[in-house]
Design goal:
Layout: H1 9-19, H2 25-34, E1 36-40, H3 46-56, E2 60-64, H4 89-100, E3 105-109, H5 118-123, E4 127-130, H6 135-148, E5 152-158, E6 161-167, H7 175-178, H8 195-213, E7 222-227, E8 232-237, H9 249-257
Parallel strand pairs: 1-2, 1-4, 2-3, 4-5
Antiparallel strand pairs: 5-6, 6-7, 7-8
Helix pairs in contact: 1-2, 3-8
Bound molecules: zinc ion (ZN).
């Protein structure tokens, strides 16, 4: 599909209700169609982000996730299904999204983000939604986004709590400004009620649409925190660190000099 073409009649019908949003309209919908969004992992959190971005009509969704569907994925990974146990996660998610919205392109990357592939994956996208459970992956993606000067929406959750912030390199605090290295107590496996990463994934999708369309105020230098067990929500102010090893002053000037 030529992204400069006007919306087709079936696209107009499909997106009609969101095009009623003030400031969105057909112009905003075309921006959404032209956008390329990388979602790193499409499990409990990223699966919901991808689902909502597919519903909104993001023209290209790049899904990165390794491995095959396991029974224990199915309390939260809503793009998977029982019959796909043992099959590729990313392919299962991509098939579901293609069946849901045939107007968009889905790029399947059967890999998790690492320091080896992060730059290559980030180059494919305009906006990145980070939905990874491991700090190593999160820090690798953060570093690649800062290097490529691409916005990254950082989504995370634990048990009944979740948090979201939007990172604009050299403008806002990056992940490493807050968490410079992998916390020593972090466990790969942790308690998850599926609806909680679902909330974080939907919030991540909303942030991506705001960046793409220019509507509203992204969570820049603000960390939205949701304690869903106690029903308490708050927003913390963040500050970029000039001595950050990823986005600090020294590193910024070095990049500018290249
Ligand atoms: Zn930083």
């Amino acid at each position: 599909m030529n992204s400069n073409e006007p919306l087709s009649e079936s696209e107009r019908q499909r997106y009609e209700w969101q095009m009623w949003i003030p400031d969105l309209g057909e112009e905003g919908q075309l921006k959404i169609r032209q956008a390329k969004v990388l979602i790193s992992r499409v499990g409990g959190l990223g699966g919901l982000a991808a689902y909502e971005l597919a519903a909104a009509g993001v023209g290209t969704l790049i899904l990165a996730h390794a491995g095959n569907v396991k029974p224990s994925d199915l309390n939260r990974q809503l793009l998977m299904q029982e019959s796909a146990i043992g099959s590729s996660r990313v392919q299962t998610a991509a098939n579901r999204l293609r069946a849901f919205n045939p107007h968009i392109q889905i790029v399947e990357i059967p890999e998790n983000v690492s320091t080896e592939n992060a730059d290559r994956l980030v180059r494919l996208a305009d906006v990145v939604v980070c939905c990874v459970p491991k700090f190593e992956e999160r820090l690798a993606l953060n570093q690649a986004c800062v290097r490529a000067n691409k916005p990254m929406i950082d989504c995370a959750m634990y048990e009944f709590t979740c948090q979201v912030t939007t990172i604009i390199p050299y403008e806002t605090a990056c992940v490493a400004c807050r968490v410079p290295e992998v916390p020593p107590t972090w466990k790969r496996q942790f308690p998850v009620l599926g609806a909680v990463p679902g909330v974080a994934g939907c919030l991540g999708a909303i942030e991506a649409i705001k960046l793409i369309t220019g509507i509203g105020e992204p969570l820049k230098n603000r960390l939205a925190l949701f304690d869903l067990k106690m029903g308490r929500f708050r927003t913390l102010q963040l500050q970029r660190r000039s001595d950050c090893s990823v986005c600090g002053q020294k590193h910024h000037s070095a990049d500018q000099a290249i």
